[in-house]
Amino acid sequence: MQTKEFLKKLSEASGVSGYEAPVRELVREEFLQYTQELRVDPMGSLIACKRGEPNGAGPRRSIMLAGHMDEIGLLVTKLEKGFLRFGTVGGFDLRVLLGQEVVVHGKKDLPGVIGTRPPHVLSAEEQEHILPLDKLFIDVGLSPEELAQWVRVGDIITIQRGFTELSNNLVSGKAFDDRAAVACIANCLQHLTTLRHTWDVYAVATVQEEVGLKGALTSAFGIAPDVGIAIDVGHGNMLGVPEVDTVNVGGGPALAIGPNIHPTMYSRLVDVAKANEISYQPDAIPGRSGTDAWAMQVAREGMPTALISIPLRYMHTSVETISLKDVERIGRLLALFISGLNEEFARDIGLPQAPA
Asked: What is the set of active-site residues?
């Protein structure tokens, strides 16, 4: 499937943290085309494996690629006089909730809107502040009796937003954080069908990243790969954000540097990018990255880890914006990196000798 077509399907699918089953089926269909093995672990992460070619040097080593497929969302907390009260799953910006169209995933999917009292009846003080959650509600157009028939406390709610193509190969939509990374991994797997590689590749669409990196932590523990690369999003250049805190949308993959990243993994990614004329951007992260790389780095006894970020504007809104070129560049960079993995690199990075 073409990158744009796959990303559109992923973006428009439902998959709030802890409830990723609908989007997972789309990922399963795509990964199945390029891998020999596929399973879902007990946490719900999708794990596909593309085996490396035998190299006569004993058991193959492995690399794990991780991109989380969950999205931030909402949860019904109360039914009140025909309206729904709700809480957030993951880090929502309350400023962008009012006026959003949503889908309430009850006994059947119900379209709804997030509303509140109009400005005409607000006090001057209330107009000066961001409305808290307890001042917002969802209207699906049903009477209290009808609402109780179809919706229960605990039902999931997703933002309703279509995939939009902008100029200069930019696209906008919801849940690009981090389903764009899943598209990068699919693109990598597709490239690997034309390249020779001796290391096994575990392509993992992780769950519950937005509520604590849980899928990456458990899947990395279960797979126990030799090295890992997380793919996530980074803040793209936009008005009002200092240049030092952003990476350029369309400027190529952002390669993280900092304590979460093994220096040799970073250096090799830079070398591969330069050798293949792939634009890239260094991305200094002096502390916690807050990504799947943070969990992967300390799985079991620890593993050499890298982080590649997709430059993205308007993070955690329904109009996240990225460049398709960046997604495709990352897929190609990953594939070329993997095709060059060998025992010399394993020694350079400090891995113990592979058992016979």
From this structure: 209
